[in-house]
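README: folding subset

This subset contains proteins for which both the sequence and a predicted structure token string are available. Records are stored as plain text. Below is the entry for AAA family ATPase (353 residues), shown exactly as it appears on disk.
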Amino acid sequence: MSDLIDTRTPLELSHLPAQFVGREAEQDTLTDAFGVEGESRLQNFHVYGPRGTGKTHLLQRFLTTFPPTFTTCYLSGIHQNTQYKSLERLYHLLTGTTLGTGHHVADIQRKVEEQVTLPTVIVVDEVDFLLLNDGDDLLYYLTRLENTAVITVSANRRSLEEPLDERTYSSFHPQHLTLNEYTANAARQILADRARKALQPQSLQRAALTYITATTQNISIGITWLREAAETADDRITRDLVQNVEVTAYHEFVKSLLNEFTTHHRRLYNTIARLEQERGPLLTTGTVYSEYSKRCETAGVAPLSERRISDFLTHLELLDLIEATYYRGGRKGKTREIKLVDWNSRSDSEETS
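--- output ---
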């Protein structure tokens, strides 16, 4: 660990701060709606905000404010990306035990329903990944449970009315909460607080912090960038240093996102990055799949099917790592042109696997 870093924890993306700068209004909205400081109420909510706006931390902290007479559960649509996986996880959170194999979805639904004996609040984070599969069925089931509130969280959709079946949305019928991107000033306060807790005094130059927060208000990128600079610095984090590690810091951020997924996701992203470096942006899915297959062959692993890789490209879109333009026509009906999401001063891609 760098000599500048006293304690690494505040520089980790998973660190849950005690206070949320710039999110007081959103905290108040949730508190007022649920009445957690007095007589608690149950409300369905849909929370939207671009990546790096603090949605996950806000909801995780909010769940801790409920009294012991409530049950709270947190599901991640990335890890629990099917109804079956979500119900398994929910059962484990409610009982502390793990179900054996071979259960039908209806059986697990019944077992979960039997365990909902207290008022229950369920957060379904990264709901978009669930909606690629059978998330609609899961939400219909959850919103029909007695004495239960459901809070969905999305970085891509302001509303779930369009992707959900009419009966599901009617059952859900959420209130809406939007988290806008942080201002540069709020981002500066957040990173300055992290730096005070993690770094030696006077080790962060104000101009360095200003450069980071003027470039990005995505707090996840900002924290990763600050940590990369701290690990690289000899005696002080300067503006020149943060400029020098800018691209490396972005790749570290990408790596942290893709670590939640499979090796094939990382290989696919690297394939796109390498092709874009060699041929420029606007790559077709066919070109990407052909090159991905070659990289698999070189690595001595079997490539996944085109259909599966198409799903993985959608995952990269939802992570805001690639942009895709869809076109009708062609031999297989619909195709898309792909390019990496622009990043300031991006240079040659580095491997993230």
